Amino acid sequence: MLIELLTKRYPGMRAWLTQRLSALVMAVYSVFAVTRFLIVQPSNYVAWIDFFQPLWWRIATLLFWISLCIHAWLGIRDVFKDYVPNPSVRDVLDKLLVVSLWIYLIWATWLLLA
Amino acid sequence: MQNNQQKNSQKEKLRPGQMSRPKNLNLFTIRLPINALVSILHRATGCVLFLILPVILLLLQLSLNSAEHYQTVIAILHSPFIKVMLLGLAWAFFHHFFAGIRHLAMDVHWMTTLMKARYTSKVVLVLGALATLVLAVKIWI
């Protein structure tokens, strides 16, 4: 039953679950990031660089950012669905949303892995 | 009773465009129950957080770029006006976080009765305010 709901025949269910899973990833990362920040307490430039030096931390942060982009896409798309009744205007806004999120994602990837 | 039924059958004959729907466009005449308030704030804070994304990326890039740029970012974050903005954004994050946890809990059918939903709404508002207060103390003292 549950598996059937996640097939392509029910895109709404997939979106719903994706929104929740990305939220969970971000929630776990957020708690972890705040805790790590409070423990390490980077107070100067060198310490700040060190904070972002470990590869596992960069990958975790990237994972957070990917979840964020997916979460924001689904969330803002729902907002447009609710408040922008004109389909052609909404279509333009949806495209702008996707483009800006791709830019943020590429930007963050370059920032964290380059 | 019969009168009512007559009215209903009359309504059904009307086309959708002709139906007399109640219109209430003045938002200030709607009194939001506390759970609705938490819900709409979850959406509003989500939008705010989305809009601030490029600024966060820019600040992160600058801060990691060089020691001078790091100092610039620190200086920006220390100005009183920015601190107030930062607190507002922090509240947006905290509210979105706690209200999101509440929605997740309700998705697994936890705290779903009306009384419990009202109670958790209050908890979410208090936790958001408390977290912001802690941060305020931390960045001003």
Descriptive overview:
- The complex is a heterodimer of chains A (114) and B (141).
- Chain A has 114 residues and is an all-alpha fold.
- Chain A has a single domain (2-113), classed as Up-down Bundle (3 helical TM bundles of succinate and fumarate reductases), CATH 1.20.1300.10.
- Helix content of chain A is 85%, strand content 0%.
- The longest helix of chain A is centred in the first third of the chain and has 30 residues, at 11-40.
- The mean pLDDT of chain A is 94.
- By secondary structure, chain B is mostly helical.
- Chains A and B meet through helix 2, helix 3, helix 4 and helix 5 of A and helix 2, helix 3 and helix 4 of B.
Write the layout of secondary structure elements.
The complex is a heterodimer of chains A (114) and B (141).
Chain A: H1 2-5, H2 11-40, H3 45-51, H4 55-83, H5 87-113
Helix pairs in contact in A: 2-4, 4-5
Chain B: H1 2-13, H2 34-65, H3 67-78, H4 80-107, H5 114-140
Helix pairs in contact in B: 2-3, 2-4, 2-5, 4-5
Mean pLDDT of chain A, to the nearest integer, reads 94
> What is the succession of H and E elements of chain A?
HHHHH
What oligomeric state is this? Answer: heterodimer
CATH homologous superfamily annotation of chain A: Fumarate reductase/succinate dehydrogenase, transmembrane subunit
Order of helices and strands of chain B: HHHHH
Which stretches of chain B of 5+ consecutive residues score pLDDT under 50? 6-10
End-to-end CA span of chain B: 69 Å
At CATH level 3, the topology of chain A is 3 helical TM bundles of succinate and fumarate reductases
Radius of gyration of chain A: 18 Å
* CATH domain class name of chain B: Mainly Alpha
Please outline what is shown here.
The complex is a heterodimer of chains A (114) and B (141). Chain A has 114 residues and is an all-alpha fold.
Which features characterize this protein?
heterodimer, A: 114 residues, mainly alpha, 3 helical TM bundles of succinate and fumarate reductases, 5 helices, B: 141 residues
